[in-house]
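To assess whether the prediction recovers the assembly geometry, we first specified each molecular entity separately, as shown.
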Amino acid sequence: RKEVEQDPGPFNVPEGATVAFNCTYSNSASQSFFWYRQDCRKEPKLLMSVYSSGNEDGRFTAQLNRASQYISLLIRDSKLSDSATYLCVVNFAGNTPLVFGKGTRLSVIA
Amino acid sequence: EAQVTQNPRYLITVTGKKLTVTCSQNMNHEYMSWYRQDPGLGLRQIYYSMNVEVTDKGDVPEGYKVSRKEKRNFPLILESPSPNQTSLYFCASSHSSGNYKDTQYFGPGTRLTVL
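The predicted structure of the complete assembly is given in tokenized form:
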């Protein structure tokens, strides 16, 4: 069974804080991993792909732990504009449909 | 501008009245997909298409039909809508479905209410 699990939150953090989300997936053979961001009532948009070696894009860092079957997203120096729902997305095998987690809601407060 | 468009953006209809939600992309993508999003359930895939004339069921295909006669268009058809199909619908496209280099682009969403 293809499952992607996320803590729904909400995570309420002050501006400037560092926050981390984890996401677990059910299949050890999963091939590719992504984090998408979705603002309220808007479409999801790709935040970053997650590479095996981990990757960073400005204040955002994504990590993959294949042994424990989880990926993480770290946001440093949180901004008010980071408030959104973050979706963990997994491709379980080859050219098959992506599986979306239900999302983790983040609220950054002044 | 590269984009996925959906129409209509908002629709209120009644049970049993056939409707079509259109989806079009201008990026020459092979892969297109329809999702519905409901509170507490996240995004669930309805149907997807790997290429022209190739469509497959997703996780929740019951009550829906799709077609892929042209690469750019992937309409979603509700032959006899029911209230449990009230939802927020997203169309998406990408070059492929799983390559980590391929961003999946989403349309702006269609909010459907079936009375």
